[in-house]
Known about the structure:
Among the domains are: 2-119, no CATH class; 318-399, no CATH class. Helix content is 56%, strand content 13%. The chain is built from 19 helices and 9 strands. The chain has helices at residues 2-14, 104-119, 124-143, 150-161, 168-181, 185-192, 197-200, 203-214, 219-229, 239-247, 252-265, 270-280, 286-300, 304-315, 320-331, 338-346, 354-365, 372-382, 388-396; strands at 19-24, 32-39, 42-49, 52-54, 61-64, 69-74, 77-83, 89-95, 98-100. The strands form 2 sheets. A 7-stranded antiparallel sheet has the order 1-2-3-6-7-8-9, covered by helices on one side.
Amino acid sequence: xxxxxxxxxxxxxxxxxxxxxxxxxxxxxxxxxxxxxxxxxxxxxxxxxxxxxxxxxxxxxxxxxxxxxxxxxxxxxxxxxxxxxxxxxxxxxxxxxxxxxxxxxxxxxxxxxxxxxxxxxxxxxxxxxxxxxxxxxxxxxxxxxxxxxxxxxxxxxxxxxxxxxxxxxxxxxxxxxxxxxxxxxxxxxxxxxxxxxxxxxxxxxxxxxxxxxxxxxxxxxxxxxxxxxxxxxxxxxxxxxxxxxxxxxxxxxxxxxxxxxxxxxxxxxxxxxxxxxxxxxxxxxxxxxxxxxxxxxxxxxxxxxxxxxxxxxxxxxxxxxxxxxxxxxxxxxxxxxxxxxxxxxxxxxxxxxxxxxxxxxxxxxxxxxxxxxxxxxxxxxxxxxxxxxxxxxxxxxxx
Length: 399
């Protein structure tokens, strides 16, 4: 296991992958921090202590807590800024190990250091307020592409989403940016969950939200993000997209949970019921199919157009008990037509043993209408029972 671990690390480094981390360092004082980024022929380190403030034009340091410091290194370039006990800042600058004075070249190096520190999220709260004052939520959204720290990106998203002045265009643009701002599906899902119910009532925003969910690879992130939007009644326009995402989930338990969630809402029309039935039919586990179809019948009832489809799906089950459970559930439906009763009687052909067939038909006889056509269909199916005693008790049930 250790050997495999080191091989993976070596391959990633060889490919030029970068690793970023931030941690508290012991021995420097309570507020000392470090950020390190390293990779192929590249090394960057930011060490700092105290609160750092940047100038409004973000080209230099406006303030450092008295006694604090910044030590920025990118390969052989360095910017060291120290604050004395009065808060006065002094600099030590070098480029390729050559010392620089505080001239245009030195200030350019400071500006590059400031840009990188901002991208890593140093002084993030103050900077968000500064950007917002200058350009509002759109300016904050535009800045997301420049940020390198996912935690800071989430801060920006949260700050924007708390605004009560977001337009439909703002919200849809923000939902689209989620997919491009993070590499991890969990990070994307965490941000999507922060969209409120009111915000997702906007159809354009909801579509952008779903487009982002479709980009996920992780089933659990997909499921969580879907449950968030399904707290609303999913619009007719959005429903096919929701079902497409559900059908793309590989984990059948997650998929079953989402379909049950949809059924429990009670707002399925005929077309949506068709789509849910189709999704249920693709499960490998007959028990899950049975559970979903039983729930669908309980919650949505059985429209005439769905009756034959349900019978067909049930007929393909391997377990006779599961078939009978669904057939009995359908028997309990009110207002079945004569044709539907005959179709249900004909399903006896899908039940294996004579004893089971006889029991099923006898239960049917207690609920079916007593019309000549229904009785004739019943007697016809009774004749498929080979055992004389079972046949006799089946026929006597309608005499």
